Input
Amino acid sequence: MWMPEQPENRVERIVNDLLRGRRLKLRAGDAEEKEAITAAARLAAAHGGPQRMSPAFRRRLAQTLESAPRDSWITRRLEPSPPQLSGSGPINPRKGVWTDVGALADFDEGRGKLVHAGAVSAFVFRRGEAVSAVSAICSHLPCELWWDGEQSLLACPCHPVWFTPEGKPKSKYPMPSLNEVKARTTADERVEVLGT
Output
């Protein structure tokens, strides 16, 4: 007989998945899991950007969680409030590697194209012979954005928020801009993104 997962077990599973570097998946309509994922993402972002935690920070977080009392380390209302995401700063991976993500001709003028450079996901935008890029991960929830060609905006599938190609939020409530991702064109008209 199937038994529903207890809330405290679910939160512990989410934190363990985060500590192992697994991609977090949000189930629609699960407010408690959404709150736990959001808190975990904010913790990660406060240290080094919304995409990845450093191994040292992950170890310190694991030690802190292991030393905390099992029955009271998290509540429905997380107090004190988690730190705010910084957003808009560039993503500077340790030992970053410039990764070829395609020919300049493969990028349409003014249209966002999703690329992956190791663990870094980004939307690259072409303006003439130049390119720019922003993180493909929402600065509020750990959800991968998608390009809404009708509005020429990046849209978050997890909540009603959009971002301009420059990463600026277009929403009814204040939130951080998307992190900048370093991108460049080469002499032979290739596009490269700084990734891992």
Q: What stands out?
A: The two ends are 44 Å apart (CA to CA). The first helix runs from residue 7 to 19. Residues 44-51, 72-86 have pLDDT under 50 and may be disordered. DSSP finds three helices and twelve strands in the chain.
